[in-house]
C-alpha cells in the first residue's frame, strides 16, 4: 500500500489511519499508542512517519509497509508535537503543559535520546 498520505483520525483515537495518494481508498491502520494521537510528521524523504500521543510517547513508523519501528519514551506528559529535522536524521518531540514542558531530540536511525 501507499502509506504516504496520512490522516490522524479525529485525534480522538489511538490509531493513525493511512490512505492512498488519491485519498479514495483506505489502506490500513498504524496502531501502537494506548491513548489519543495528537501530532503527526513525515520525514522529508517520505520513508518514516512519527506520531505523538497522550500516552506520553512518540512512535516511529516505516511507511513502505506500515511497520512500527520503535517507541520513543521519556516525556512525563502528553506528546503534543513531533517534527523531523530537514536532513531527516533527528526527531523532535514536544510536551506541553505544566507536567513536562520540554522538547526532546532523538536520532531517527536508532531512537537514541540526544538532548532535552
The CATH H-level superfamily is YVTN repeat-like/Quinoprotein amine dehydrogenase
Structural class: mainly beta
Q: How far do the termini sit from each other?
A: 36 Å
The CATH architecture classification is 7 Propeller
- Total DSSP E strands: 11
InterPro entries: WD40/YVTN_repeat-like_dom_sf, WD40_repeat_dom_sf, WD40_rpt
Keywords: Repeat, WD repeat
Protein name: Guanine nucleotide-binding protein subunit beta-like protein
Pfam family, one: WD40
Describe the structure.
With 116 residues, the chain is mostly beta strands. The chain has one domain: YVTN repeat-like/Quinoprotein amine dehydrogenase (Methylamine Dehydrogenase, Chain H, 7 Propeller). Helix content is 0%, strand content 52%. The protein has no helices and eleven strands. The chain has strands spanning 5-7, 15-19, 26-31, 37-42, 48-53, 57-62, 67-73, 79-84, 90-95, 102-107, 113-115. The strands form three sheets. A four-stranded antiparallel β-sheet has the order 4-5-6-7, with no helix packed on it. Strand 8 (79-84) and strand 9 form a beta hairpin. The termini are far apart. The mean pLDDT is 81.
Give a brief description.
The protein is an all-beta fold and 116 residues long. The protein is built from no helices and eleven strands.
